[in-house]
Amino acid sequence: MKSQQNVIYGVLIGVLGIVLFSSKAVLVKLAYRYNVDAISVLLLRMLFSFPFYIIIVYLYRKEQKETTVPKDYAWLAFFGIVGYYLASYFDFVGLTYIKASLERIILFVYPTIVLLFNKLFLKKAITKVQKLAILITYVGIVITFGSEVSMSGKDTYLGGFFVLLSAVTYASYLVGSGWLIPKFGVMRFTAYAMLVSCVCVFIHFGIFSDVDIFNFSWEVYVLGLCIAVFATVIPSFLVSISIKLISSSNFAVVAGIGPISTIILAVIFLNESLSLLQVIGTVVVILGILMVSKSKTT
User: For position 284, what pLDDT does the model report?
Assistant: First the structure.
């Protein structure tokens, strides 16, 4: 039985990790103010993250838990492409069209997508409580999204579509990679997948972009470094520590502060605002996700 002190530490560490993760959308939106495109910001994130994950691979080189075969590495590369490269790219593109607060609310539906994928591909039944939770969650999304469309116009549809694609690709990564993590160990698997994602971004930028990476204002590089260190690398460690201390199911409940923290940060740093209807929709989404999280433990 975990001590009360460990639980307190685990919750506090988890909250800090979620808040830092939530700051990513706000930092990206701040970078866009300097007329930088999505792939360039993503490139800076990966360039600054790359050395950290190289170090992680070296430090955890003996973490491997089970025997691996070449096919395991092929699947690892695939999930690195889908779960980190595509999910990040779709997310960054979506943020060029919609507010950071709305982006976090849409992304937050990925646990419901995981349930749907488990049903479709792994034939895992969805309970009545989970079905109700999914319905509640998407009602909340419709309320929040519909209100934003009426205020911001049709570009919101495009931005929302890309962010939803990000949630779908990330959910597919969670569903498909679960059997690989025990083979590589959590830290090695994450580091390897992130390195694959970094390489994909480097190739993408090299082929499709003609932007001079050395011609940005200094603020863009600072923001890129902050996105890499404070919104990617550090929170990934904090979340792992929190899950170890309080369990993944309890962490899923703690993660419910994600949209709230993004909204608060967006109000402070981006002067974003939500209508009363959007606040109601946000609360409905969070309640639905909490129901999903709770139902997984029963």
Answer: 85
- Number of structural domains, the chain? 1
For residue 228, give the H/E element and its range: helix 218-228
Q: Please give the Cα distance from 145 to 26 (Å, whole number).
A: 19
Residue-wise pLDDT tens digits, 33-51: 999 999 999 999 999 999 9
DSSP, res 298: -
For 125-177, how does the pLDDT look when each residue is reduced to its tens digit (9 = 90+)? Answer: 888 888 888 888 888 888 887 777 767 677 888 999 999 999 999 888 877 77
- Amino acid present at 69: V
List the Cα angle 254/115/166 in 5-degree steps: 75
pLDDT confidence bin for 10, thresholds 50/70/90? confident
In this structure, the chain runs to a length of 298
Q: Tokens for 5, please give them.
A: 């002190």
From residue 155, alpha-carbon distances to 87, 97, 99, 152 in Å are: 20, 6, 11, 7
| Nearby residues of 33 by Cβ (< 8 Å), 6 or more positions away | none
Look up the domain containing 51 and give its range: 4-296
Token output for 264? 């608060």
Contact 172, 117 (CB under 8 A): yes
Instruction: Judge contact between 13 and 251, C-beta under 8 A.
Output: no
Cβ(274)–Cβ(293) below 8 Å: no
- What's the pTM value of the predicted model, to 2 decimals? 0.87
Burial category of 283 from C-beta neighbours within 10 Å (exposed 0-12, middle 13-18, buried 19 and up): middle
93 vs 156: CA distance, rounded Å: 12
Place of tokens 């600054």: 48
Nearest to 96 by CA among 150, 27, 38: 38
Confidence band (pLDDT; 50, 70, 90) for 252?
Answer: low
